Amino acid sequence: MAWIYLIFAGLLEVVWAYFMKQSEGFSRLTPSILTLIAMLASFGLLSVAMRTLPLGTAYSIWTGIGAVGAFLVGIILLGESVNFTRILAAVLIIAGLVLMKVSSSH
């Protein structure tokens, strides 16, 4: 179950990052509230996952999902640029996540 909590925590990290961008520096109420709700849920699920997963593994996976997810959301929803270097960076992050999972005993 810890891995499922961790994946959802990472996905919620993407959600709060997106709404934080939409909040325009917390100057828009609805996106600001959604940011805070998603943050609390993300942190809560991360903390539950950390009950059984090692800190380094859990935190690395959480931030990796958030980083790659935010990268994809930026491209798909916000029209951010795509180039070889950015794609390579995302692939390297994913490779690191896979290695973290493979090396974990949980």
TrEMBL record:
Instruction: Indicate where this protein is primarily found.
Output: membrane
Q: Which residues form the signal peptide?
A: none
Q: Which UniProt keywords apply?
A: Cell membrane, Membrane, Transmembrane, Transmembrane helix, Transport
Q: Name one Pfam family in it.
A: Multi_Drug_Res
Membrane disposition = Multi-pass membrane protein
Q: What does the UniProt entry say about where the protein is found?
A: Cell membrane
Superkingdom of source: Bacteria
TM region(s), chain numbering? 33-50, 57-78, 84-102
One GO term (biological process):
xenobiotic detoxification by transmembrane export across the plasma membrane
- Which GO cellular component term is one of those annotated? plasma membrane
Query: Is Transmembrane one of the keywords UniProt gives this record?
Result: yes
Q: Name one GO molecular function term.
A: transmembrane transporter activity
Per the record, the similarity remark reads: Belongs to the drug/metabolite transporter (DMT) superfamily. Small multidrug resistance (SMR) (TC 2.A.7.1) family. Gdx/SugE subfamily.
Q: By what name is this protein known?
A: Guanidinium exporter
Source species: Siphonobacter curvatus
